[in-house]
Design goal:
Blueprint lengths: L4 H14 L6 H21 L9 H32 L5 E10 L8 E10 L11 E7 L8 E10 L12 H7 L2 E15 L4 H18 L4 H12 L7 H9 L10 H14 L7 H19 L3 H18 L6 H15 L7 H23 L5 H28 L1 E3 L2 H28 L5 H22 L5 E3 L5 H16 L4 H21 L6 E5 L2 E5 L5 E3 L5 E4 L2 E5 L12 E5 L11 E4 L5 H14 L3 E3 H4 L2 E2 L13
Parallel strand pairs: 3-5, 12-13, 13-14, 14-15
Antiparallel strand pairs: 1-2, 1-4, 2-3, 4-5, 6-7, 8-9, 8-16, 9-10, 11-12
Helix pairs in contact: 1-3, 1-11, 2-3, 5-6, 5-14, 7-15, 8-9, 8-10, 9-10, 10-11, 11-12, 12-13, 13-14, 13-16, 14-15, 16-17
Length: 635
């Protein structure tokens, strides 16, 4: 059982981070210290030589890791909540900030850049880990590292205004984005030349320009930046959508495949250090982590880097490498350093797919051992692809609600082409172009190869009659499907654990279904207007002056000045500010209210101690939900 200790600790840590909001941070920390102290006391009092020989010791340590995960996650999110509480929402401020991210593509007129190192007068400066988004015209030539100052209104992130819509607010918050700036004019006042993000962006720009000078087309250069340096923002939206809908998006995500190829190249180039094992290992690790820096240290690349580091160090010490243990160790370290990654779809899908490949490759290799070389390679590639897609099934249906059943065909064609064509040739052309050497015929071959890969992805993505969509998988359903898929992978090793996983998935699904708050009736925005959804079939359009009775509550939509005459009984759905004749029972602020009106409504609610629900900040309004006067209001 000691072999799977890292897996148990990783699962305990992840569960603690997920449940971190259930208890105060102080209680999580005290519980972690208490259980860790209990485990240490039991270990020394019984004179055990190994932690695994005492079930009490092992249980205490697992609980200590669980509580430590809750403490670490609670510490991070409590800091973000404190930052959110202190910000002057819907108010104009004078600010200075640094541009940290500039996408190559955007909408028809604007694109959203990210700013960090935000300072706003009396509010002080936010930590660098917290960022803001700001819409700027496509014609603006902002670059990463530029320092800007100006005047802007602080807006909360937009929540989901209809049940079933993706909650991009939570997704952005887990990435460290605290809000949006509605710019009222900015100017560039300087540039930070020596920051990590500015250096990374400068390298990417230099590589793109060098490739295009060497004869590589723009689309091929953008694909190279995505495949080699993890710059998915450089790809045009149509190409990105084609790879995503065809089930081959993982080829554009720098992960273990790319790190493995880079590691093989680096090991081959350092052959002359074969007798100096320590030096060679140090050089390889330094180059691999330097490559990770250029890609931005996303969760998949961090996972691959930690696993390769464990592999190289274990070989250096002549130890035995256990791939599943290395995977869980990488996840445990990632959660300690960046607990917010647990909510990232990239983190979840990367670890799930890698675990599936590790658990299934042995049986697949044994089955195909007697096959001919060509068939053996094809069979193993197809088997590993199917295993990875099976592990990703609950995530794909839950996050994207779309599954192309032709994904085995796409991966069977594109994985060899990208692994043995696009990455090596693209890397070679990058080195040659940056050195000032041009090989026109190689650039022409590379252009044809990348266009062919994009064409295959595009053709398969258009075969939507082979796609599954509209499932609407809930969180409980995703947990059940995930538990069943995990049971398939552990069935050959332990049928008892497979059945236990299926049982736990069923219990989690039932608990989530029973504990989920009822959605109907709710007020949301649909087709440009606000609607009261009574149930799945009945909807009432809320126009100016509409009065609707919902249970023991009365909702008046967009009243004019003085129309609220039944003080303390009606809930007002408001947009433009019009002071009621009497304080209402509550105020629901529409998600598209202008910032000046939103500020005046919040001040009115604070003055008269009226509960206020901000749909922009909290999403659609459940009519059966009770909320206090202090909720939804920020000072």
């Amino acid at each position: 059982m000691q072999r799977y200790a890292t897996a148990v600790f990783f699962a305990a840590m992840a569960l603690g981070v997920l449940l971190c909001r259930g208890l105060p941070v102080v209680l999580w920390g005290l519980a972690a210290l208490l259980t860790a102290g209990t485990g240490i006391f039991l270990y020394f009092s019984k004179g055990r030589k190994s932690l695994g020989t005492g079930s009490g010791v092992g249980l205490a340590l697992v609980l200590a890791v669980f509580f430590a995960g809750g403490w670490r996650g609670g510490l991070y999110f409590s800091r973000m909540d404190a930052v959110q509480e202190a910000l002057p929402w819907y108010q104009p401020v004078e600010y200075t900030a640094r541009v940290s991210q500039v996408p190559s593509y955007g909408g028809k007129q604007v694109r959203y850049v990210q700013l960090d190192e935000f300072c706003a007068g009396r509010q002080g400066c936010l930590p660098r880990e917290y960022a803001w988004t700001m819409a700027v015209p496509l014609s603006d030539t902002l670059e990463v590292g530029d320092r800007v100052e100006g005047r802007a209104v602080l807006l909360p992130l937009q929540g989901a205004l209809w049940a079933g819509e993706p909650d991009f607010r939570s997704i952005q918050r887990h990435k460290g984005v605290v809000g949006q700036l509605r710019d009222a004019g900015y100017r560039v006042v300087g540039r930070e030349e020596f920051s990590g993000s500015a250096l990374r962006e400068a390298v990417r720009v230099a590589v793109r320009e060098a490739l295009m000078r060497g004869g590589v087309s723009r689309s091929a250069a953008e694909l190279t930046l995505a495949v080699l340096l993890g710059d998915k923002g450089a790809i045009d939206p149509q190409t990105k959508k084609a790879y995503q809908l065809s089930g081959a998006m993982h080829l554009l995500v720098v992960s273990g495949l790319h790190v493995g190829i880079v590691a093989g190249i680096v090991l081959a180039l350092t052959f002359f250090l074969k007798r100096h094992r320590w030096l060679r290992t140090a050089v390889v690790l330094a180059l691999l982590w330097g490559y990770g820096f250029l890609t931005g240290y996303s969760p998949p690349i961090l996972r691959a880097l930690w696993m390769f580091s464990v592999l190289l160090l274990s070989r250096l010490g002549k130890g035995r490498y256990f791939s599943l243990g290395a995977l869980c160790l990488a996840g445990w370290v990632d959660l300690v350093l960046r607990p917010q990654d647990i909510y990232s779809a990239g983190f979840q899908m990367s670890y799930a797919a890698t675990a599936a490949v590790i658990l299934s490759y042995g049986p697949i290799a044994r089955v195909s051992r007697e096959w001919k070389a060509g068939w053996r390679f094809t069979g193993r590639l197809l088997g590993v692809t199917l295993a990875a897609q099976l592990a990703l099934l609950p995530f794909i249906l839950y996050y994207f609600d779309y599954l192309n059943l032709l994904f085995p065909v796409a991966n069977l064609l594109l994985v060899p082409l990208v692994s043995y064509g696009v990455i090596p040739i693209g890397g070679l052309l990058t080195v040659l172009s940056c050195a000032g050497l041009q090989v026109p015929w190689l650039a022409g071959v590379y252009n044809v190869l990348t266009d062919f890969c994009t064409g295959v992805a595009s053709e398969i993505s258009q075969r939507d009659f082979f796609a599954v969509s509209g499932v609407g998988l809930s969180l409980g359903g995703a947990l059940l499907v995930g538990a069943l898929c995990a049971g398939v992978f552990v069935w050959r090793r332990s049928r008892r654990w497979a059945l236990a996983l299926a049982l736990w998935g069923g219990v989690a699904c039932c608990v989530e279904y029973l504990c989920a708050r009822p959605v109907y009736p709710f007020v949301g925005k649909k087709d440009g207007g606000y609607v009261l959804a009574v149930d799945e079939d009945r909807q009432v359009k809320l126009e100016r002056g509409t009065v609707v009775r919902v249970g023991d509550r009365t909702i008046r939509a967009f009243p004019r000045r003085g129309e609220c005459t039944s003080g303390g009984e009606e809930i007002l759905l408001v947009r433009e500010f019009a002071e009621p004749e009497r304080p209402p029972a509550g105020i629901v602020l529409a998600g598209d209210a202008w910032w000046e009106d939103a500020f005046r409504w919040r001040e009115y609610a604070r003055k008269w101690n009226v509960p206020l629900y901000d749909m922009r900040e909290r999403g659609y309004f459940r009519c059966g939900e009770w909320w206090k006067a202090s909720e939804g209001m920020r000072k």
